[in-house]
Amino acid sequence: MSIKSVPEGYLVDIRPQGRDGKRIRKRFKTKSEAQQFERWVIATEHNKEWVDRPADNRPLSELIDLWWRYHGQTLKSGEVARKKLQKMDARMGYPIARQVTKALFSEYRAMRLQAGRLPNTVNHEHDLLGGVFSVLIELGHYHHAHPLKDIKKIKLVERAMGYLTQAEISDVLTALSNDNLKVVKLCLATGARWSEAANLRREDVLASRVTYINTKNGKNRTVPISAELCRQLTNGVNRGPLFRDLDYLLVRDVIKSVAPDLPTGQAVHVFRHTFASHFMMSGGNILALQKILGHYNIQQTMTYAHFAPDYLSDAVRFNPLENLLSAA
Question: Which ranges form a coiled coil (predicted)?
Answer without folding.
Answer: none
